[in-house]
Here is the input.
Amino acid sequence: MKLMRLFAIVSILFAIIVPLHASAQSTMNFADVKGTVYNQATPANGAKVTLYSYDGKKPGDTQGTVNVGADGTFIFKNIMFDPAKPVSYIVRAEREGNTAYALVLYYPANGPNQPAEVREINIDIGSTVSAMRGDAAVTVWSTASSGMPVGQNLALVLGADLKLYSVDPNTNNMTAVTFSDTPKTDNNGLHTFPALPYGKYYVTAEKNGKSVSGQYFWVTQQENTVNVVSNIDVPKATATPTNGTSSGGAWIPGFETAAALTALAGVIILQTRRKQ
Here is the structure.
């Protein structure tokens, strides 16, 4: 009787624990963490790279350490990721007293055409930016130009007001980042937010009463480039004929138009690849 009772208890525990264990395993994915360490844009031969757990504020437990070779590359194999957490790890690279950190960004599978991905890391131990911070260079573009159909022209938006928000990566709750003066894009449509703490952000642009939904981005390393595409009206650029001439009465596109079309193609590609 005691044996039967013991067998029944064990069977019940097995029935409870095994599904829970299988469920926990099914929610976890494994992937390699890899990248390259540089020192002022030169591969940092002999640098030591350590992988830590990360709670959103500071490094935690050590997950492994490797030394990079002459090409500066490193890899940590089969690291466990929780799809619900976009950031669970941080890497530290060091050599001869120089140190730099980079977040490890994980994107779970989003349909058959977008498999799970761990962003490859490029980290520069020669950066002058403070540890655990990075610069974010934001450029605002417009697909609307006065006198042109929407989407057929691309222009830089000068003097646009920017609003920046820090984003909780788990809840997506946003908190406004305050500045003494309103950040604005310069004559190149660019504004750089210096030395932002690592994390997720959201930036919006506004000019002449027209605003755009904005762009999510991560500050993960020493530098981050962000493109915000808007429909803010900007003056139509003056066409510049090639060599100041026309052929058969037909206008020949000049440098500004060719550059704008090239930039538009690049921005569209970046926007389609960007994930929140």
In short: The domain at 134-237+253-273 is CATH 2.60.40.10 (Immunoglobulin-like).
